């Protein structure tokens, strides 16, 4: 049994660490230096997952130094912090350890996929992606969840799938890192759009239209960047879109709801789609792709367009074949 080190003790990192420790894995949860003592004292993450006790075997650490050399590393900080985390800590991580990225997003500064951001700092090891529909609170509560684990090498994908699957967390494997990570990143943008639609009172039918046309945009961009259409049909694409664009438990959907109702999104929450939407639009422009739902979402977020005008713009585009 290989030890697992979860780097980042927010909601998702903590939930994964709890699930894996409960299943009997040897797990270290690496938090910020100021947070680790609080987690250790309370034996729960009171901020992110209140009232969910840590299994007694779960170790909490304040630094990723001195992790076991055969560790599987799982990075669970927000997408925009991926590069900074690795820039700061890569030198202290066990050389050669596989790194699984759990964040969902596209780097706003560089427009790069997170696997490419990570590879700059972690060039000599395999980088895998964990994505799919799963709320941290549900995972931590022991509810059943299925996600996708993608690595370029099918052998490694299988090794990680076996190592990290538990009775409650079923992992499917894939070799399509591009499609799997893009599904997770792009669904957040469409979830914000769907939230805005519901928040503004435009109705469930309009939301279904946005989800479907948004899915077509996910596929369009994903295929242009080298993803496999089957990934978008799977858990990390359609699966996560279905969850995130319909559930008030999603921070992206909830942010959209607030904006649609004329309020600010709740401050201090990790709302990945806000940065990813902007990254996606600039990426699509460079590639010459039309992504009208994503474009309209960014225009609303930037205050360049009102919600009614954005919807009218989408509805009055030239009539076309459904593709
Ligand atoms: N919460 C979920 O249900 C869920 C599910 C699946 C995937 N994800 C993805 O996981 C990622 C993290 O989300 P989350 O819900 O855990 O967010 P969160 O806001 O709960 O936690 C983020 C954590 O990262 C830490 N962090 C940020 N920058 C850091 C740095 N430079 N060094 C050390 N720690 C740093 C923060 O202190 C915080 O503990 C996101 O990309 C999200 O899309 C979340
Ligand atoms: O709360 P959200 O919107 O970040 O969604 C969490 C997960 O990505 C759902 O799979």
Automatic annotation (TrEMBL):
Q: Where would I find the Glycerol-3-phosphate dehydrogenase NAD-dependent C-terminal domain in this sequence? A: 176-311
Binding-site residues for sn-glycerol 3-phosphate, renumbered to this chain: 104, 132, 187, 240, 250-252
Amino acids binding NAD(+): 8-13, 136, 251
Q: Which gene encodes it?
A: gpsA
InterPro entries cross-referenced by the UniProt entry: 6-PGluconate_DH-like_C_sf (IPR008927), 6PGD_dom2 (IPR013328), G3P_DH_NAD-dep (IPR006168), G3P_DH_NAD-dep_C (IPR006109), G3P_DH_NAD-dep_N (IPR011128), NAD(P)-bd_dom_sf (IPR036291)
Where's it found, cell-wise? Cytoplasm
Q: Which reaction does it catalyse?
A: sn-glycerol 3-phosphate + NADP(+) = dihydroxyacetone phosphate + NADPH + H(+); sn-glycerol 3-phosphate + NAD(+) = dihydroxyacetone phosphate + NADH + H(+)
Annotated GO molecular function terms are: glycerol-3-phosphate dehydrogenase [NAD(P)+] activity; NAD binding
Q: What is this protein called?
A: Glycerol-3-phosphate dehydrogenase [NAD(P)+]
What role does this protein play? Answer: Catalyzes the reduction of the glycolytic intermediate dihydroxyacetone phosphate (DHAP) to sn-glycerol 3-phosphate (G3P), the key precursor for phospholipid synthesis.
Domain named Glycerol-3-phosphate dehydrogenase NAD-dependent N-terminal is located at: 4-154
Q: In which pathway does it act?
A: Membrane lipid metabolism; glycerophospholipid metabolism
Which PANTHER family does the UniProt record give? GLYCEROL-3-PHOSPHATE DEHYDROGENASE, GLYCEROL-3-PHOSPHATE DEHYDROGENASE [NAD(+)] 2, CHLOROPLASTIC
Superkingdom of origin organism: Bacteria
UniProt-annotated binding residues for NADPH: 12, 32, 104, 136, 251, 272
Residues annotated as the enzyme's active site:
187 (proton acceptor)
- Single GO cellular component term: cytosol
Record-stated family:
Belongs to the NAD-dependent glycerol-3-phosphate dehydrogenase family.
Q: Which GO terms describe its biological process?
A: carbohydrate metabolic process; glycerol-3-phosphate biosynthetic process; glycerol-3-phosphate catabolic process; glycerophospholipid metabolic process; phospholipid biosynthetic process
Chief site of localization? cytoplasm
Q: What is its EC number?
A: 1.1.1.94
Pfam families reported for this sequence? NAD_Gly3P_dh_C, NAD_Gly3P_dh_N
């Amino acid at each position: 049994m290989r030890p697992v080190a979860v780097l980042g003790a927010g909601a998702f990192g903590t939930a994964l660490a709890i699930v894996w420790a409960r299943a009997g894995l040897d797990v270290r949860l690496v938090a910020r230096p100021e947070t680790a003592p609080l987690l250790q004292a309370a034996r729960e993450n009171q901020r992110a997952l209140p009232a969910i006790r840590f299994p007694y075997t779960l170790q909490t650490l304040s630094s990723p130094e001195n992790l076991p050399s055969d560790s599987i590393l799982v990075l669970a900080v927000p997408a925009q912090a991926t590069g900074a985390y690795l820039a700061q800590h890569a030198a202290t991580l066990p050389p050669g350890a596989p790194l699984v990225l759990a964040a969902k997003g596209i780097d706003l500064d560089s427009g790069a996929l997170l696997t490419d951001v990570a590879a700059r700092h972690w060039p000599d090891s395999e980088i895998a992606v964990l994505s799919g529909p799963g709320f941290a609170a549900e995972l931590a509560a022991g509810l059943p969840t299925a996600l996708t684990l993608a690595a370029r090498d099918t052998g490694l994908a299988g090794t990680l799938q076996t190592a990290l699957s538990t009775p409650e967390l079923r992992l499917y494997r894939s070799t399509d890192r591009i499609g799997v990570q893009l599904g997770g990143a792009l669904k957040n943008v469409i979830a914000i759009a769907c939230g805005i639609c519901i928040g503004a009172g435009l109705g469930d039918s309009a939301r279904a239209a946005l989800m479907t046309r948004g899915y077509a945009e996910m596929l369009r961009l994903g295929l242009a960047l080298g993803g496999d259409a089957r990934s978008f049909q799977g858990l990390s694409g359609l699966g996560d879109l279905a969850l995130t664009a319909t559930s008030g438990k999603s921070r992206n959907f909830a942010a959209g709801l607030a904006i649609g109702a004329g309020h600010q999104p709740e401050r201090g929450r990790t709302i990945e789609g806000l940065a990813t939407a902007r990254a996606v639009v600039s990426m699509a422009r460079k590639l010459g792709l039309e992504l009208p739902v994503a474009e309209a979402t960014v225009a609303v977020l930037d205050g360049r367009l009102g919600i009614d005008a954005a919807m009218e713009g989408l509805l009055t585009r030239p009539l076309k074949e459904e593709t």
